[in-house]
Amino acid sequence: MTAGRVEPGALPATTPRPDSDAGSSYPPTGPGHRPEDGGGRPGDPGPTAGVAEGREPRAVVRVSSPTELRNPRSLDLDVMSVRDVLKVINEDDRRVPAAVAKVLDEIAVAVELAVTALRSGRRVHYFGAGTSGRLGVLDAAELAPTFNAPDRWFCAHLAGGPDAMWRAVEDAEDDEAGGAEEARSCVRPGDLVVGLAASGRTPYVLGALRAATDLGADTALICADPGAAAARSVTVFIGVETGPEVVTGSTRMKAATAQKLVLNGFSTAVMVRLGRVYSNLMIDMVATNAKLRGRMISILVEATGCAEEVAQHALTEADGDLKAALVSLLSGAAPADARAALDRSANQVRGAIALLAG
């Protein structure tokens, strides 16, 4: 199995890519396959349910999930004007934030589990396939530049490995054993494992969650089916009721939007609880370009009311450590003392200021 981790230092992908840009086909092409437009004698039976000559039958699953239902608001989608198509999509998208609002309590539980894990030196893992998995990779990738989160904190696992970021990897999401193997390779007791599956039944994800539970990790499942059977087997279940998609079964739409909103809220709240935000300012950001170096100055000015020149001087004195410069400006302490107070207060700005004041 190709390693599913998509993070700095993860193993490179080895999954072969299909030659065609069309992705996987169904029924499959290959030796003995007769396309619908010819190639066989009249009356010859073609391959059935994806069975070509010399090949085993391929599994067929009919998913029972709200995301697979027909949306009555988009039945005439193909005869609408472009403007009306966009209006239907937009109006349906507006339902998503309200649906996410109904599961805030469950998201809060997941946040506390993640904070506990990270404070104990453990990790948060995202397991997903297709769009869901790609969103997990995106969320994990953005935490380092935004909050200077260590690489080891969040680990994203994508069915099919890194290649699956760009194109579908055949049958990867159906690999329950592969998900379990991936979890057993790196999940440890005390970790939090978050499954991302629009339908709530993706075998790769459920395999990983079951293995994680056996390993002593806490588990969460984020999906678009509030009635998913897997709700009973995870520590916290986050089932967002997004309903039928505008294009039936296209879970890259509302279901994915809901997952993105949940992940945005989840990981941002985790970073806030871990002291990576002061007020509503990013105080652990990594300044990797001129814009972000300018933002560091702006943050110090906004947080303290000092002049830009003072902020620049404080940042220089703190060797570019934005958080130490901030504590130094707010407390009047030397940058070295500010850094020491931050170390003693678990990197919490308000806690460090309290220590310096006491």
How would you describe this structure to a colleague?
The protein has twelve helices and seven strands. The chain is of the alpha/beta class. The strands form two sheets. The protein has a five-stranded parallel sheet, with helices on both faces. Strands 6-7 form a two-stranded antiparallel sheet. Helix 2 (95-101) crosses helix 7 (254-273) and helix 8 packs across helix 9 (308-317). The longest helix is centred in the C-terminal third of the chain and has 20 residues, at 254-273. Helices cover 42% and strands 8% of the residues. The protein has helices spanning 82-93, 95-101, 104-119, 130-147, 176-186, 203-214, 254-273, 290-304, 308-317, 322-331, 335-344, 349-357; strands spanning 124-128, 154-158, 192-196, 218-223, 236-239, 277-278, 281-282.
Helix and strand topology:
Blueprint: H1 82-93, H2 95-101, H3 104-119, E1 124-128, H4 130-147, E2 154-158, H5 176-186, E3 192-196, H6 203-214, E4 218-223, E5 236-239, H7 254-273, E6 277-278, E7 281-282, H8 290-304, H9 308-317, H10 322-331, H11 335-344, H12 349-357
Parallel strand pairs: 1-2, 1-3, 3-4, 4-5
Antiparallel strand pairs: 6-7
Helix pairs in contact: 2-7, 3-7, 4-7, 5-6, 8-9, 8-10, 9-10, 10-11, 10-12, 11-12
